[in-house]
Design goal:
Shape: elongated
Oligomer: single chain
Keywords: Membrane, Transmembrane, Transmembrane helix
Order of helices and strands: HHHHH
Helix content: 55-70%
Strand content: under 5%
Amino acid sequence: MDESRPEPIAEESAAGGAGFDLALGIVGAVVGAVVGVWVFGLIARQGFLAVFLPGALTGLGCGALSGRRSVLLAVISGALGTLAGAVAEWRLAPFKEDDSLGFFLTHLNDLRPFTLGMIVLGGAMAAWFGLGRRGGAGLRRTAVARGR
């Protein structure tokens, strides 16, 4: 390959096209978010606070199944990871005035700065991990990513 030419924007995936990779990435993100909220609840009952965990697992699920590097998936994963962190915090400690999720989401600015920071950190981790990597990751790695 000519070294002076930039790498192509679209890359080959492990299987299927861009739509297939996008769908698998979103499925991975949703599964990661659900698992993240559940694991956060388990950890919180033991006295540890890890509000970033739902976001991180959202991104890891997305990146592991996406099969390619994708900015669109990073944005989707980041948004879903931030939402998963907020839902996890709501399940742990809803507001006393109104324990509905809608009220909680419209009053996020009333949370402690540390808690907000951890939710945002989880969203950033979701975006970073959800970006994926060139050639895929895990089971969806291509021969290019394996160095062949």
